[in-house]
Inverse folding.
C-alpha cells in the first residue's frame, strides 16, 4: 500500500490535537498538528510509543519528569508509563505506536 500524507484527512483526537493516522498490521503512526495551548492529559496505554518533535516546543511529562522538547528531540515511552503534554507554541509531532493503537482506527 502506498499513501501520501497530503491525502490523509486529519482527525481531531482531542481539542487542539489534529492527527493524520496511518496503520499497518503491527504499528500505528500519528502525524500531529498541535495548537498552542493544547493539552494531552495524563494517561498511559499498553502500546510502546516513540515521540518525535518536528516543529515547536512541547512540554512533556513522562513518569513525573517534565522537560521541554524542541525540533529533533525524540522520547521513547515504555508501555504503561504515565505521560502528558502541552504545546507551548504550535507544534508538529510524530508518534509511532506498537502494537496498533486500535482506538485511533
Amino acid at each position: 500500500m502506498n499513501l501520501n500524507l497530503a491525502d490523509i484527512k486529519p482527525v481531531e483526537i482531542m481539542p487542539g490535537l489534529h492527527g493524520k493516522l496511518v496503520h499497518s498490521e503491527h504499528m500505528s503512526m500519528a502525524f500531529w498538528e498541535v495548537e498552542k495551548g493544547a493539552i494531552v492529559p495524563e494517561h498511559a496505554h499498553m502500546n510502546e510509543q516513540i515521540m518525535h518533535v518536528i516543529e515547536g516546543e512541547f512540554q512533556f511529562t513522562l513518569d513525573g519528569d517534565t522537560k521541554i522538547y524542541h525540533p529533533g528531540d525524540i522520547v521513547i515511552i515504555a508501555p504503561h508509563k504515565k505521560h502528558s503534554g502541552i504545546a507551548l507554541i504550535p507544534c508538529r509531532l510524530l508518534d509511532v505506536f506498537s502494537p496498533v493503537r486500535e482506538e485511533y482506527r
The chain has no helices and ten strands.
